[in-house]
Amino acid sequence: MFFDTHAHYDDRAFDDDRYALLDSVHDAGVELIVDPGCDLKSSRASIALAERFPFVYAAVGIHPEELQDSTPEILAEISALAEDPKCVAIGEIGLDYYWDASHKEEQKLLFRQQLQLALELDKPVIIHDREAHGDCFEIVRDYPGLRGVFHCYSGSAEMAKELLKNGWYLGFDGPVTYKNARKTLEVLAICPPERILIETDSPYLSPVPHRGKRNDSRNLRYIVQTIAENLRLEPETVAEITLENGKRLFGIN
Ligand code: NI
After folding, report:
1. What's the CATH number where 219 sits?
2. Cα 139 to ligand 1 centre (Å)
3. Which end of the chain, N or C, is less surrounded by CB atoms within 10 Å?
4. Ligand 1 centre from 60 Cα, in Å?
5. pTM (2 decimals)?
6. What is the number of structural domains in the chain?
């Protein structure tokens, strides 16, 4: 009954047990998964996983850390991959000034090109925003028809309010369970339940009590538990609502 809307099962951290792990994750109650690509190779791998497993859906895109993949030829290939029936979004795309603040203009251009692609293909986007809140916010405002999720949202509650007003979803991941989650919990408190998505970002960002270990979608329950406690809802209710939210955003029946 869980929907992990962001997990990188194409990552090499899963090379030894990828298929068996996906089977056991599904058996453990993870009903749906979206695997976002980060470059051309991982976008292809994500499509391949989605073709193999009925419960896995793909997203394709070039992550800001993969700027070297931002040639017109590669973007054309991403665009072609996006036509696959199992591709439900463009992502993960965005800006990352933590990783590299010296190529901001190149990152912004790549981001805009992919937002434009999403609009043309009428697909939602999965946005990666790390220490680039102001620019991400300004750029998405230039694309009024666009919909999607701010993955592992780490901006302010003020910016969250504006995004929510414009129909955006917010993704909550392992960090919501960390001791220093105060800012994220403030955002959670103002986020209507029908705009929350739950994500693991596997293999990264394991929630407490597995922080520091390889993450997988079975750990969603810790994220759901924390959200449920904070919103004073039952965990089952949070799981159900977020499953519906993900299906709605990604157009999965
Ligand atoms: Ni990710």
Report:
1. 3.20.20.140
2. 20
3. C
4. 12
5. 0.97
6. 1
Question: How much helix, strand and coil, in percent to the nearest 5, is found in the chain?
Answer: 50, 15, 35
pLDDT one-digit tens code per residue, 92-106: 999 999 999 899 999
Please, are residues 39 and 45 in contact by the beta-carbon 8 Å criterion?
Answer: no
Output the CA 27–ligand 1 centroid distance in Å. Answer: 23
pLDDT surpasses 90 at 68: no
Q: Which residues contact 164 (CB under 8 A, 6 or more apart)?
A: 170, 190, 191, 192, 195
Average pLDDT over the chain, rounded to an integer = 97
For residue 190, the enclosing domain spans 2-250
**C-alpha of residue 37 to centroid of ligand 1, in Å:** 8
DSSP string covering 20-31, please? HHHHHHHHTTEE
Helix 182-190 and helix 157-165: axis angle, to 10°? 30
Query: In the predicted model, is pLDDT for residue 69 greater than 90?
Result: no
